[in-house]
Amino acid sequence: MSDSADYTFVCPECAESMLVNDSMRDALLENGCVICSAALTPDAFSTA
């Protein structure tokens, strides 16, 4: 029905918000926000 969205991501710089799974979380932590390129920490993610 849907990919397992395990985390809610909120960028601390631009406030972009989305549901992400483990692999998307890892990519965001490695590459930064897809909107503003801000560096991210695990604090930007909460469990959905």
How would you describe this structure to a colleague?
It is a single chain. The protein is of the alpha+beta class. Helices cover 21% and strands 23% of the residues. It is built from one helix and three strands. Strands 2-1-3 form a three-stranded antiparallel β-sheet. The chain is globular, with a radius of gyration of 10 Å. The protein starts with 6 loop residues before the first strand and ends with a strand. InterPro entries: DUF7560.
Gist?
By secondary structure, the chain is α+β, with helices and mostly antiparallel strands. The chain contains 1 helix and 3 strands.
Which tags fit this structure?
3-stranded antiparallel β-sheet; 23% strand; 48 residues; alpha+beta; 1 helix
